[in-house]
Write a sequence for this structure.
């Protein structure tokens, strides 16, 4: 059984409160745009194998900002947590009160798994359009990757620290959710970059040609990969600190463990499609079962 | 009849009472002459010890052309760019404390000196530049990255020397740790911020007036060969030694060090016409301010002290320093930031569309 939910969910079908280990697994998917592919993957799982609900943060954030002019990041996070609590209750058909401090026990009792697919576009922001002063960097663990001879080399440490800065807001969201749940949190990696420059250019053109000269240059596939990898490593490290399980994209969704498999291409150059989501969910199911 | 003496026609600034005792501390002005004025269009390169950083910041804030030949790459956040010493000085050389270091920086940049001890490997396998060990915490990730960054850095140093109109240099220290192998001068003692101290390999040189004068004159001679129009503002750092490696009290060692530098500065000015001395050292250390231009640790220079120095600097050394003395925030958003913002907006649209598609089922 699957349910798709954004902001104002339909009433969930009541579920028995008693634990039945043969009952479908329960998932609460929380995330931004990449979570759409994951939701498609959840939806594709045979009915009866799982129950899920989906909080699409891209929508709830905008909704909350519209409803609460001038809302601070802290207030926004608090309201998001309230929505998460509401959806946890809906996931098991529970109508009673659920104070935040009882959430960990509730999650454990009902064997709910939280799947986080939070943001995951920061590598794209600086990994799309070639800046006036092209740059490149060496990955600490893969120094053999090619470097653009025309680009200025940026120290790895400086890249790491800068992206750590840029991910602070994302990590803060993850911190709050992980603190609320205190277990059963799975952070899903965002899809690797598209290798095909033509695909990148044509699928970005619609948005970027209006904002840049028509002949804008995109960064090399190699740099796109490095930026993705850098962010992945930062997420991994943060998950370790949080005690959350970080799940990389399955190998079959990638080419050379670096780029998005063409079968996983979405209609835009940023996201992955349902095929990717299905395989990611398969990995989630196997991990949860293990 | 009043006796005529060499003091009779001396101006007010020559008399302690008229120039110091009777003048409010904030109005004391020991500059007197400063012939070669700096224009806003002049490209200014800065180097030296900590105090030179203050000068670089204030020049930038007042829209003087602080030439930065090794700017922060656009991929870095402003916080990280600063932490990695981009834009602190004209190139990413960090603090150049001694005359020996400056001379060798030039020689290294032009391939005239290749120190035997040219990289340190840290405990985590990171690579540290012995000649700028504090330039970035954690060092460089790989040897290849280290080599490439150093090459880029030395090219930026050459560009700075060749393009500058005015070189502002602050002499900082005389105590200098060097390699016994080839005399390479390190900014910090090996072992402090990388490397390992080995008394068989490293030794302390406490530069004399003659050493400093010789180093600096050699440097200016080389600089003038690549840049005939160079003009130089020389200062002595008022920041005391953080520690001495000699067998003396740090106060005594500091007095020696600053005295050597101060005397050397005058000798250099006498020998090299393009060089002028600016008395920031006297403004900060002078007894007239009763130590008020230092922070509580009696070492860090207080912003009120920097204000005094820079006010006089702009009044005397800058052609149009007074006219636009209002500081300008150095944090004005760059064109790159604007591009980034547009990108964020565009991505937001892409991501929203995905969300909307899904919501629509």
């Amino acid at each position: 059984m699957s349910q798709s939910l954004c902001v104002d969910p339909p009433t969930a079908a009541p579920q028995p409160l008693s634990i039945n280990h043969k009952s479908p697994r329960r998932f609460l998917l929380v995330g931004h745009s990449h979570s759409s592919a994951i939701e498609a993957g959840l939806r594709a799982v045979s009915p009866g194998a799982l129950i899920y609900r989906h909080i699409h943060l891209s929508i709830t954030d905008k909704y909350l900002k519209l409803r609460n002019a001038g809302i601070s990041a802290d207030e926004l996070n608090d309201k998001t947590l309230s929505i998460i609590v509401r959806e946890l209750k809906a996931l098991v058909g529970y109508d009673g009160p659920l104070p935040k401090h009882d959430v960990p026990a509730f999650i454990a009792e009902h064997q709910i798994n939280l799947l986080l697919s939070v943001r995951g576009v920061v590598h794209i922001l600086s990994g799309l359009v070639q800046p006036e002063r092209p740059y490149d960097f060496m990955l600490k663990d893969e120094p053999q990757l090619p470097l653009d001879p025309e680009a200025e080399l940026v120290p790895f440490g400086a890249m790491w620290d800068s992206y750590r800065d840029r991910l602070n807001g994302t990590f803060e969201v993850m911190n709050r959710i992980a603190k609320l749940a205190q277990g059963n949190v799975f952070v899903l990696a965002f899809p690797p970059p598209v290798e095909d420059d033509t695909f990148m250019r044509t699928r970005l053109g619609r948005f970027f040609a209006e904002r840049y000269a028509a002949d804008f240059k995109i960064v090399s596939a190699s740099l796109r990969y490095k930026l993705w990898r850098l962010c992945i490593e930062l997420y991994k490290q943060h998950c370790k600190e949080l005690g959350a399980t970080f799940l990389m994209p399955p190998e079959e969704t990638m080419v050379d463990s670096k780029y998005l498999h063409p079968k996983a291409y979405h209609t835009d150059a940023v996201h992955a499609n349902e095929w990717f989501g299905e395989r990611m969910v398969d990995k989630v199911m196997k991990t949860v079962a293990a | 009849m009043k006796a005529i003496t060499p003091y009779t026609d001396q101006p007010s600034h020559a008399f302690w009472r008229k120039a110091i005792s009777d003048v409010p501390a904030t109005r004391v002005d020991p500059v007197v002459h400063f012939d070669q004025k700096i224009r806003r269009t002049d490209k200014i390169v800065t180097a030296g010890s900590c105090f030179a950083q203050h000068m670089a910041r204030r020049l930038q804030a007042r829209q003087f052309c602080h030439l930065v030949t090794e700017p922060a790459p656009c991929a870095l956040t402003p916080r990280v760019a600063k932490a990695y010493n981009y834009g602190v000085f004209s190139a990413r050389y960090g603090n150049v404390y001694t005359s020996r270091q400056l001379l060798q920086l030039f020689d290294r940049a032009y391939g005239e000196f290749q120190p035997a001890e040219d990289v340190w490997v840290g405990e985590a396998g990171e690579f540290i530049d012995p000649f700028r060990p504090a330039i970035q915490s954690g060092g460089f990730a790989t040897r290849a990255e280290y080599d490439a960054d150093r090459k880029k850095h030395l090219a930026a140093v050459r560009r700075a020397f060749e393009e500058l109109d005015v070189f502002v240099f602050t002499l900082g220290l005389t105590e200098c740790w060097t390699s016994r192998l080839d005399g390479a001068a390190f900014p910090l003692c090996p072992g402090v911020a990388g490397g390992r101290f080995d008394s068989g390999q490293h030794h302390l040189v406490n530069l004399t007036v003659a050493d400093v004068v010789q180093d600096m004159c050699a440097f200016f001679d080389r600089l003038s060969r690549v840049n005939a129009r160079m003009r130089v503002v020389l200062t002595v750092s008022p920041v005391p030694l953080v520690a001495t490696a000699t067998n003396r009290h740090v106060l005594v060692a500091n007095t020696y060090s600053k005295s050597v530098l101060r005397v050397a500065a005058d000798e250099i000015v006498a020998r090299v016409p393009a060089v002028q001395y600016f008395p920031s050292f006297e403004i900060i250390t002078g007894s007239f301010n009763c130590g008020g231009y230092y922070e509580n640790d009696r070492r860090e220079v207080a912003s009120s002290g920097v204000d005094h120095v820079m006010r006089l600097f702009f009044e005397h050394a800058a052609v149009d320093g007074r006219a636009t003395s209002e500081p300008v925030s150095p944090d004005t958003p760059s064109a790159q930031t604007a591009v980034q913002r547009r990108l964020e907006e565009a991505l937001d649209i892409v991501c929203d569309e995905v969300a909307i598609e899904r919501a629509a089922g």
Remarks:
- The longest helix of chain B spans residues 335-359.
